[in-house]
Specification:
The chain is of the alpha+beta class and about 150 residues long. Helices cover about 20% and strands about 35% of the residues. The chain contains 3 helices and 8 strands; from the N terminus they run βαβββααββββ. It has a 4-stranded antiparallel sheet.
């Protein structure tokens, strides 16, 4: 039996971003997580086996967000999705939406948002041909669309 657990608008203070000020001052990040759980039901139908504690999901997201600095929010979102799939055996996929309200853009907007899923869906190009890494850190892995290669 597969079902979805959603945690919406989990908020954390962390130090991600390309600019020195972002690393020094930090800022808020908001995470929506949707995980697909592959659990089973007991033979009498009265209990679910293999479910995931959503408090533990929150703590895993927090561990990643408050952990080491990432230059790109894309890298952070991907790392969260991968961590959830790695940490919980019954989580078969994770979809992460990450919002960064304080962005260095000369304009008025509420936030910048990225969405990442793990494992990647169909249509993702060969990672060997499409991986971009940050020159300053070895943590910014981005799969580029074909026209950007």
């Amino acid at each position: 039996m597969r079902y979805v657990i959603r945690l919406n608008n989990c908020s954390f203070f962390a130090h991600h971003g390309v600019f020195d000020e972002e690393g020094r001052l930090g800022q808020r990040f908001h995470v929506d997580a949707e995980v697909v759980v592959d659990a089973s039901v007991t033979s009498d139908g009265r209990a679910i086996v293999g479910t995931v504690d959503y408090g533990e999901i929150f703590r895993e997201i927090e561990r990643v967000v408050r952990g080491r600095r990432r230059l790109l929010i894309e890298s952070l979102a991907l790392d969260i999705a991968r961590a959830l799939c790695d940490r919980f055996a019954t989580v078969v996929s994770a979809h992460i939406t990450l919002r960064k309200p304080s962005v260095p853009i000369d304009g008025i907007l509420d936030y910048v948002e990225v969405q990442m899923s793990w494992p990647p869906g169909d249509g993702i190009c060969n990672a060997d041909d499409a991986v971009s890494r940050s020159a300053a850190h070895d943590d910014a892995i981005i799969l580029l669309e074909p026209e950007h290669r």
